[in-house]
């Protein structure tokens, strides 16, 4: 692939990622994509096999952006607790972070693709597993270093924590009320302090 073709492909993905995320796979029309990119249908499909391949690339773009920030928040210096608090501080502002993405890619694509796109559903499930795994690793390392005590296995705790985070994102998105996000993160901070702090 030439440099120009690579740039065009990257431009298309970056431009259409928030559109697919906001309107969904079925809800995004070809005219939405040509209008946003300023390219013809032929120019877009010269870079992607079909709409499904483009939608998957768009999700992966948003997913990689999100995972990059999660990695950054969990990589802060300090104890396992400090790393978890760093992650929760990020999720407290998640609505602001996800606005340019067209909303939460996990929630939006996960729900939208459920009955119409198995590839996207699989990609969302993989992303959820990735995030839960990253949180579990922080917990496991913290327990091994004697920084925290875990009442359940690390992955089980990570899954429960992330379930509450995603639930808060869903409620905040559906009601357009960010208090769901803020209050849940405050509750999770208290929970983490009480449950796993040594």
TrEMBL record:
Looking at the UniProt feature table, which residue ranges are given for the DNA-binding region? 29-48
**Keywords assigned by UniProt?**
DNA-binding, Transcription, Transcription regulation
Q: What is this protein called?
A: TetR/AcrR family transcriptional regulator
Name the Pfam families for this protein: TetR_C_13, TetR_N
First and last residue of the signal peptide: none
Membrane spanning segments where? none
Task: Give an example GO molecular function.
Answer: DNA binding
Q: Key word DNA-binding present in the record?
A: yes
